[in-house]
Each structure stands twice: as C-alpha cells, then as structure tokens.
Design brief:
Distance between the termini: 36 Å
Oligomer: single chain
Shape: globular
Structural class: alpha/beta
Strand content: 15-25%
Helix content: 25-40%
Largest sheet: 8 strands, parallel, barrel
C-alpha cells in the first residue's frame, strides 16, 4: 500500500475517534492531521502567500499546498522582470507560477501592473534617450497592461493595478514619479481602464503600505473616493500589512477597515508579515552588536499581535475577501535584506525549518 493511502486511512481513523471529543481535544489533534490555514479559514476568506519559482518545489511546495489556497508572484509579474525591453517579454517565471496554480487548483492574485519601482527605464525614453511624450507613455502602458493581463485572462482573478502611488510625505498627495510627471494625475485612472478592458472579469485593486496610519490612510481614502466617484473600474483596496509587533493598534486597524469599506470596496490584506523590529523606511547597514534573535519576549509580542489582527480579520469578514502572507516562512523573507541588510527577521507563521510557530496556533485557535 502506498504511503499516501496509509496516511489517509490513519487520518480517517483519527478523525472518527475524535467525533465525541471536546473542541479543545479536536483542536489539539489537528496538529496530527494535514489541516492548514486555508482549512481553518475556509468559511472566511482565501489564505494566500507570495511565491517565486523556487517556492514551487521541495518542502516549501509541500507546505504551500497544505496551508494556502491562493498565491501571488512576489516579483515575476512586476513590470521590470516581465517586460525588460520594449519588444521583449520574459514569461518563464510568471508562467511557472500560474501553471502551478492551475495544476493544484489555487487562486492567483496578479502583482502588479504599474509601480514607480522595478519599472524599466526604456518605458520613459525614446531611441535617442530623451523623455517620451504623454501619448507615447500612455500607449506603452496600454500595450504592457493589455499584453500581460490578456495572457492570464481567466487564470488571474484579481490584479494589483497601481502600487504605492501615495507619497510618504504628508505634505504631498501623489508620489513624484515619471508616471505622474509625464502622464499627469490621470495615469492611475488610465491604468485601471486598460486593465478592465483587457479582462472585464478581473477584480482590480489599488495597493499600498502604511494604510492604517491615520494621515496616510486619509490620503489613500481621498484617492480611492476620487476613483469611485469618477466611476473608474476599481473593485478594492489592497492593504499591504507590512506590520510589526509595535503597530498597528487595534483602533487603527478597525478604523482603516471601516473607512475603506465605506466606499463599497473589497479589502484584501495583500502582503502580511509581522516584523520583530520597528518600521524603518531607509536602507542601512546592520550595526555592530545589533541583536537579531527571536527572543522569548519578542516572540510573545508577535504572538499577541498576530492574534489581535486575525481576530479583527474574522470580525470584518464581510469586507475582507482575501489575506496573503508575504513569503512562506522565516527561512527566507524580504525583511532579511530590507531595510537592514543581513539582519535576520522572523515575521511569519512558519520558522526556518518550516515548522508552525506558536503564533500559528493563536491564529487558528477560534470558534467558528
């Protein structure tokens, strides 16, 4: 008999034996059954994770398939990687992610179609190296969005169309980028228009970070309201949720969800992680003697923060239609290189050995 068949029979017998057990006993037994985050939250929202091609094989792929039912390309679909030169697209990595999802019945969120970072320089220049006109840049943007979105039409159900367009400076509104400089403020509406034309069935999102901080929250809300009032085809807002054990507060998170959802938009938490360090925007080197261990004190604070945010997620499930973690485990996370290169972070629910951390059990320990 195959090992997989033996495991299925063992799981069946274990579940049958637990039929008369208490909720607590059944919960503890889940550790022995191949039940994942997606199963605990099947009545709430999909649980996703950001991946690269390397995630789709070996033990990480096994964890992915056990725990998640949605994936996002961490980098493979961004404009620079997928469209490095005007007449050249690099499809291999993005295709591998979409094909993996199709094979295993996973949802795919597309990330992203327009961003000020990882945008190739050729997009903004002509053959002589001069800055292109508004009309030329709009045509290039339309061609890019049409080509990418149509390739995955019917396979990607939601797109982060515009990423991080609000400036970090509270005295400014839109971030000063080539998109804004050359096209003007309507570059955002145009991007949503092109994406909707390319795939009328796809859900379209504006995506940003620090979305719970009141002053930036209010500027994001203003942008979203402008788009909704202008009848731009936007369906939701992506709240990146690059958080820490220090923020957001429960009050900030609740107020943000209520404010954005008041516009009738879906909410996706698109890039969830919980750093054990305070937020820093600027890159820097690791300081001499700077500790990068997950101490018991830091772990307890992380457990409490994860419990708080997921308690709120479940409470607002009417408005929250997707939650995605940014990377699979503490084995690799973008926070190991940003903002402090070489400083180990421990922001996720799985440790460097891909084992469930204590925070995991607080996230799934709830009554339905």
């Amino acid at each position: 008999m195959k090992r997989s068949s033996i495991l299925l029979i063992a799981n069946f017998l274990l579940i049958a034996a637990l039929a008369g057990c208490s909720v607590k006993q059944q919960y503890q037994a889940d550790r022995l059954i191949t039940k994942g985050l997606k199963d605990y939250y099947k009545d709430y929202f999909p649980i996703g994770v950001a991946v690269g091609p390397q995630t789709l094989k070996g033990d990480e792929a096994e964890l992915l398939l056990r725990e998640f039912n949605s994936i996002t390309a961490e980098n493979a679909m961004k404009m620079g990687p997928i469209h490095p030169r005007e007449n050249e697209y690099f499809w291999r990595d993005a295709d591998s992610i979409v094909n993996f999802a199709q094979k295993h019945g996973l949802r795919v969120r597309g990330h992203n179609l327009l961003w000020h970072e990882q945008a190739p320089e050729w997009m903004f220049k002509d053959s002589q190296g001069n800055q292109v006109s508004r009309d030329v840049l709009l045509a290039r943007l339309k061609d890019h969005i049409y080509t990418v979105v149509k390739r995955y039409k019917g396979k990607i159900y939601a797109w982060d169309v515009v990423n991080e367009a609000i400036d970090d400076n509270p005295d400014d509104f839109l971030r000063k980028t080539k998109w804004l400089e050359i096209i003007g403020e309507d570059f955002i509406a145009k991007a949503f228009q092109f994406a909707h034309e390319a795939d009328p069935d796809a859900l379209l999102f504006y995506n940003d970070y620090n979305t719970e901080r009141p002053e930036k929250r209010d500027r994001i809300y203003t942008l979203l309201k402008q788009l909704v009032d202008a009848k731009v085809p936007i369906h939701g807002v992506g709240l990146q949720a690059h958080w820490s054990i220090f923020e957001p507060t429960e009050k900030e998170l609740r107020e943000a969800i209520e404010k954005y959802s008041s516009l009738g938009l879906q909410i996706h938490f698109t890039e969830v992680d919980m750093s054990v360090y305070p937020w820093e925007k600027e890159r820097r080197a690791k300081r001499s003697g700077e500790n990068d261990q997950l101490t018991p004190e830091l772990e307890q604070k992380q457990i409490a923060q994860y419990k708080m945010v997921f308690d709120i997620f479940r409470e607002y499930r009417k408005h929250i239609t997707s939650v995605t973690f940014w990377n699979v485990s503490d084995r690799y996370t973008w926070l190991d290189t940003y903002p402090v290169s070489g400083r180990k972070n421990y922001p996720l629910l799985f440790d460097t050995k891909l084992e469930r951390k204590k925070a995991y059990w607080e996230v799934v320990n709830f009554k339905k």
